[in-house]
């Protein structure tokens, strides 16, 4: 009887150790949600021609990224489907943790001037312009400048950007 009790006790201890090990391993799993405790990102600067995006703290560059743009990147976005990335001052106005592109931060395009310009052409200005990571399954990424007008970075970079940038942050997009 005592031997049986010792076997049960060993099995309980083993099961407990396995549960602790499993929980420990789960806590090591990579997460797309990172934390950031550094200086505030006060503005984002995008230079389309150089394919560079800078996260700024006032006049100091905190991080710099190589970016991809819309499939027709030259010029300001005019209408839905033109493949251009907007130019001008906008704001980060939303975040999507369940994006089709890993993670994404919304850009406040179109503004009233964009809507008016498109309306004068009898067209929609489009919308849903984001900074985002790479595509999930079912979306082709073909070479450079593959988005429909968004600004794309790697998934790892997007995780950092998502943690660093707050809603309301201005984004200046230059030609």
Written account of the structure:
By secondary structure, the chain is α+β, with helices and mostly antiparallel strands. It has two domains: 1-30; 43-174, L,D-transpeptidase catalytic domain-like (Beta Barrel). The protein contains three helices and eight strands. It has helices at residues 2-28, 112-120, 155-164; strands at residues 43-47, 52-57, 60-66, 88-96, 104-107, 129-132, 151-152, 170-174. Strands 3-2-1-8-4-5-6-7 form an eight-stranded mixed β-sheet.
Number of domains: 2
**Top-tier CATH class of the largest domain:** Mainly Beta
Low-confidence stretches: 21-29
What level of helicity do the residues show? 25-40%
Rg from alpha-carbon coordinates? 23 Å
Might you state the CATH topology name of the largest domain? L,D-transpeptidase catalytic domain-like
Note the overall shape.
Answer: globular
Total helices: the number is: 3
Distance between the termini: 82 Å
Beta-strand percentage range: 15-25%
Q: From the helix content, strand content and strand pairing, which structural class follows?
A: alpha+beta
Number of strands: 8
Average pLDDT, rounded to a whole number, is: 85
CATH architecture of the largest domain: Beta Barrel
Main beta sheet strand tally, sense and closure: 8 strands, mixed
Going across the biggest sheet, name each strand in turn: 3-2-1-8-4-5-6-7
Q: What's the CATH H-level homologous superfamily of the largest domain?
A: L,D-transpeptidase catalytic domain-like
Helix and strand run = HEEEEEHEEHE
């Amino acid at each position: 009887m005592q031997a049986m009790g010792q076997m049960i006790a060993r099995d309980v201890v083993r099961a407990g150790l396995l549960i602790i090990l499993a929980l420990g391993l789960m806590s090591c799993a990579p997460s797309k949600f990172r934390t950031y405790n550094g200086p505030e990102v006060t503005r984002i600067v995008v230079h389309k021609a150089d394919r560079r995006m800078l996260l700024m703290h006032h006049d100091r560059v905190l991080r710099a990224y190589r970016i991809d743009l819309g499939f027709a990147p030259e010029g300001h976005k005019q209408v839905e489907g033109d493949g251009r990335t907007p130019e001008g001052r906008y704001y980060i106005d939303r975040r999507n943790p369940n994006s089709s592109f890993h993670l994404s931060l919304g850009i406040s395009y179109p503004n009233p001037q964009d809507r008016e310009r498109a309306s004068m052409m009898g067209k929609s200005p489009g919308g849903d312009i984001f900074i985002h990571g790479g595509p999930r399954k079912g979306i082709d990424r073909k070479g450079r400048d593959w988005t429909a007008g968004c600004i794309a970075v790697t998934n790892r970079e997007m995780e950092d950007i998502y943690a660093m940038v707050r809603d309301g942050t201005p984004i200046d997009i230059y030609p």
